[in-house]
């Protein structure tokens, strides 16, 4: 039997993504149905939902991978023009920022995992290396998160003076070092160990403790404290 694709407007009320969301709530919609709402329509021979399924299939149904597609890559799919590609990218970025804001609610650092959950959305998926400082008060509550430097894929520069100038200005008594490894490796380099030692010594003289150093990748992390390097 020949397969015929029907536009969303010809579906039953239960099957229309917009109406389905209104009547049954957002949780019942599939990822493809949510994307279909974003793009609004498919092509002459393909519904918006089928087009969304095809896009998702190209990234193994992984939303994190979808969020990494560029406008040009999305426009390779028939039925996706510039405006629709931008809508998808904007929605993915909003989701990433929401993760960041949700993580910030966990203001007290009780473990390295807490720091990972806060910092991974910020630096875990970057194609270049960044070095950040998480500043804490004497109750281990986060006062601020600050990008110290941004470098190429092979490394980044760290200015010790800036680290502790900021700490003194905000009254921080502790800090946690964080940087990402775009390569995905969780093995600290000699440079990672050296800068950690340098910052710890400087902090000791100012009575500002360097509590940990985390290397963060897209899916995992390495804690100097957890691994006994401190």
Strand content: 5-15%
Q: Give a quick account of the main beta sheet: strands, pairing sense, barrel closure.
A: 5 strands, mixed
State the end-to-end CA separation: 68 Å
Rounded average pLDDT: 88
The shape is: elongated
Uncertain residue segments: none
Query: How would you classify the quaternary structure?
Result: single chain
Strand order of the largest sheet: 2-1-3-4-5
Q: Number of helical segments?
A: 9
N-to-C order of helices and strands: HHHHHHHEEHEHEE
Q: What percent of the residues sit in helical stretches (DSSP H or I)? A: 40-55%
Instruction: Assign the structural class, choosing from mainly alpha, mainly beta, alpha/beta, alpha+beta, or little secondary structure.
Output: alpha+beta
DSSP summary, beta strand count: 5
The rounded Rg comes to 23 Å
Short synopsis of the structure:
The chain is of the alpha+beta class. Helices cover 43% and strands 15% of the residues. β4 and β5 form a beta hairpin.
């Amino acid at each position: 039997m020949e397969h015929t694709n029907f536009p969303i407007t010809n579906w039953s009320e239960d099957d229309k993504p917009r109406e389905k969301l209104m009547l049954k709530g957002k949780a019942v919609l599939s990822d493809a149905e949510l994307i279909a709402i974003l793009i609004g329509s498919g092509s002459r021979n393909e519904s918006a939902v089928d087009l969304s399924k095809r896009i998702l299939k190209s990234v193994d149904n992984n939303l994190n991978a979808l969020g990494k597609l560029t406008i040009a890559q999305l426009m390779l799919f028939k039925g996706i023009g510039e405006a629709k590609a931008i809508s998808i990218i904007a929605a993915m970025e909003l989701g990433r920022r929401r993760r960041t804001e949700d993580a910030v609610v966990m203001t007290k650092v009780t473990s390295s995992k807490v720091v990972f959950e806060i910092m991974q959305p910020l630096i875990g998926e970057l194609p270049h290396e960044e070095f950040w400082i998480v500043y804490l008060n004497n109750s281990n509550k986060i006062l601020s998160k600050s990008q110290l430097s941004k470098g190429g894929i092979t490394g980044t520069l760290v200015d010790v003076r800036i680290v502790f100038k900021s700490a003194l200005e905000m009254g921080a008594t502790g800090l946690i070092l964080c940087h990402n490894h775009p390569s995905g490796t969780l093995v600290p380099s000699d440079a990672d160990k050296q800068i950690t030692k340098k910052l710890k010594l400087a902090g000791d003289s100012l009575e500002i403790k360097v509590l940990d150093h985390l290397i963060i990748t897209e899916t995992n992390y390495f804690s100097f404290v957890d691994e006994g390097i401190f």
